[in-house]
Amino acid sequence: MLKLKPENFQNKVVLIAGGGYFGSQAVIISKDVNAKVVVIDNKIDCEASVFIDEIIRETNVQKTSDVKAGAAALFVCDAVEFTVRLMMMASPDYIVPAMQGHFAGKLVKKWLECEGLEVRSTSNVLENVLKDIPQSLILHCDKEMGVIITSYMSKGNLCEVPCDQPIDICPSTGIAKMGPMHHILAYATHDKVTLSKILVGHTLWGRKGGEVGYFQGSALMSFLSDTKQLKTPYSLAVGTACDCHGILNLFYVSPC
């Protein structure tokens, strides 16, 4: 996993979807590197609220441009809806998925629905994708929802923290790794769907400890732009993965 340097975040917009424990850690670290921090949570008293400089009780994405470097604003609203509206105007530099479920998958689905399309899960494609993912890496598979969760860590166990995610061997289990998880998911989805994208997670380490996982907003924006060139019906794969863990959504898109 690429470890981004603090200077990569200076004056950049960091969008944090979710204000719980991980969202709070992201706020602390992002403010410390002088980023412009935008937090979205539907609870005004979320855990991250104690680290916030301004609370905005409305879905006004234009106010994100008022956030200063080294400060954080909490927008009290739905994170998926807010981010879709924001990305129709401008893409944040970095996105922290700190809420339950696959944030990128939810966002892509909502984006396409706003385009007037019907988006549903596809189990047929999922079966083909599973053939190219080693069984030992599959933590969870929901065929009805079209979701696959993968990890080098076995179910019920926890990774050692901190961890720099070495490519060759998992330091927690001592088991040899087959390669970065984002490469495995990219290979598994290649030629199985009309368009696929695995958003690669990066890590920022806090100066005072802790770490936060991000992916680049431009990568997601590029994928969303590419969907505009497709003719319905079509299939999509969108995933988020680092070197060790991943989550994947498979969609079938058709006219309403």
Q: What would you note in describing this structure?
A:
By secondary structure, the protein is α/β, with parallel strands linked by helices. It has 2 domains: 1-100, Rossmann fold, CATH 3.40.50; 102-200 and 219-256, no CATH class. Helix content is 25%, strand content 29%. It has 6 helices and 13 strands. It has helices at residues 21-32, 79-89, 103-114, 123-130, 181-189, 217-227; strands at residues 13-17, 36-41, 54-56, 72-76, 94-97, 117-121, 138-142, 147-151, 195-200, 202-205, 211-216, 234-241, 245-255. A 7-stranded mixed β-sheet has the order 3-4-2-1-5-11-10, sandwiched between helices. Strand 12 and strand 13 (245-255) form a beta hairpin. Helix 2 (79-89) packs across helix 3 (103-114). The protein is globular, with a radius of gyration of 18 Å. The chain starts with 12 loop residues before the first strand and ends with a strand. The mean pLDDT is 93.
Strand content: 25-35%
Question: Treating each run of at least 4 consecutive H or I residues as one helix, how many helices?
Answer: 6
- In helices, the fraction of residues equals 10-25%
Radius of gyration: 18 Å
End-to-end CA span:
39 Å
Largest sheet: 7 strands, mixed
Low-confidence stretches are: none
Alpha-beta classification: alpha/beta
**Spatial strand arrangement across the major sheet:** 3-4-2-1-5-11-10
What integer is the average pLDDT?
A: 93
Which series of helices and strands comes N to C? EHEEEHEHEHEEHEEEHEE
**Total separate domains:** 2
The general outline is globular
Count of extended strands: 13
